[in-house]
Amino acid sequence: MMDGEYKMENSSKVEMVETYSQKLEDDLKKLGLKIKHHEDNLKFLNSQMNNVDESILDMQVNLGRYHSSHLASGSCGTSLLETEQRTIQNILKQEKTAAGIICQLKVRHGLQASKLALTKDVLGVVATLGKVMDDNLSRLFSEYLGLETMLAIVCKTYEGVKVLEKYDKEGMIDKNAGLHGLGPSIGRPLDGRFIVFCLENLRPFVGDFIPDDPQRKLALINPKLPNGESPPGFMGFAVNMFYLDHMHLSCLTGSGHGLRETLFYSLFSRLQVYKTRADMQHAIPYISDGAVSLDGGIMKSNALFYLGSRRHVDVKFPIGYGASSLPANIVEVEEQIKLLNWRRERLAEDIKREEAVLSDVKNSFSVQKQELKNYLTRSAFSR
């Protein structure tokens, strides 16, 4: 090869190397800019999350002061606190149950229990998530659901359900993981089956809420006789007879659905409440999803009747008081907390997505950087 031709070929190779290496460098710079963009997004989202957390905390502190002073000054305060504690104590008496483990964690560790990897997604036990206005309704609804359902665990997401119980390669329960592993460590071994509700997987009530109702009761259509009136003795729907405190009124699912339209609607659907068994029996043609009566009648459907004496109920719903007497500003604060919690859920999802994208871009940056380094090394040896 002549000297001139060699120089031309060498010059062409150098130009190709420079062109391709420049392309790799440009691609690397673009990835670097993407990394900065997503890091800025994360910084902004985390800042928003901190602001929301601070706002929620401030509002909850103010609400806590109000409710504490209200309970301390009211004659019904002690009763309310006592019934809540009684429900917890009766759950703790249920040995070898998942509900007993969850309640013991909350009693011993309080807010810290909500930060543990195993229980941070657990909202609570069914029996602790709603209150009713008197002991008779408490016994009636608790007997209707049955002890197993009253002791059911409620999780926000399916991811939370999965961590409660783990399995080995043969599909057997891993006794060293989940609640089975935690139970013995706190002196509460777990045995037998237990129910877990996943809020995000429950089909919510499809319909409207009663306008201007701070408890967000469901706008269910009352049964009607041919004359347009409700059947004698009809008192309402069980799902709307529960009082939810300000924490449980907050939106909980990713789609913004609360406890009443998910959990309680799933448990009670359109269960009707009547004054007497006679009233309930006369109204059978107008009952679609079962009914109960204040004197102990239980009908799961038009074909399934519970007869005999009322049972002793081991675990009951606590007694609570409606929010209708709350000052307007307190109701407004509770509504703001609900909206902020919903916004927090959205921010958490955005942060999770942004972190995943950032991780992918960083991986691409590392690969591209290594490719450029390898290419330059090979080019230097080939000259």
Detailed description of the structure:
- The chain is an alpha/beta fold.
- It has ten helices and eight strands.
- It has helices at 3-73, 77-92, 98-109, 135-145, 147-150, 158-164, 178-185, 260-268, 277-282, 328-382; strands at 122-125, 153-155, 196-198, 234-237, 272-274, 291-293, 298-301, 304-306.
- Strands 4-5-6-7-8 form a five-stranded mixed β-sheet. It has a three-stranded mixed β-sheet with strand order 1-2-3.
- α1 (3-73) runs antiparallel to α10.
- The chain starts with a helix and ends with a helix.
Structural features:
383 residues, alpha/beta, 5-stranded mixed beta sheet, 3-stranded mixed beta sheet, elongated
Shape: elongated
Contiguous low-pLDDT stretches (5 residues minimum) are 72-79
Number of DSSP E strands: 8
Q: Oligomeric status of the shown chains?
A: single chain
Into which percentage range does the β-strand content fall?
5-15%
Order of helices and strands: HHHEHHEHHEEHEHEEEH
Helix content: 40-55%
The averaged pLDDT comes out at 82
Brief overview:
With 383 residues, the protein is of the alpha/beta class. It contains ten helices and eight strands.
Give me the secondary-structure topology.
Elements lengths: L2 H71 L3 H16 L5 H12 L12 E4 L9 H11 L1 H4 L2 E3 L2 H7 L13 H8 L10 E3 L35 E4 L22 H9 L3 E3 L2 H6 L8 E3 L4 E4 L2 E3 L21 H55 L1
Parallel strand pairs: 2-3, 5-6
Antiparallel strand pairs: 1-2, 4-5, 6-7, 7-8
Helix pairs in contact: 1-10
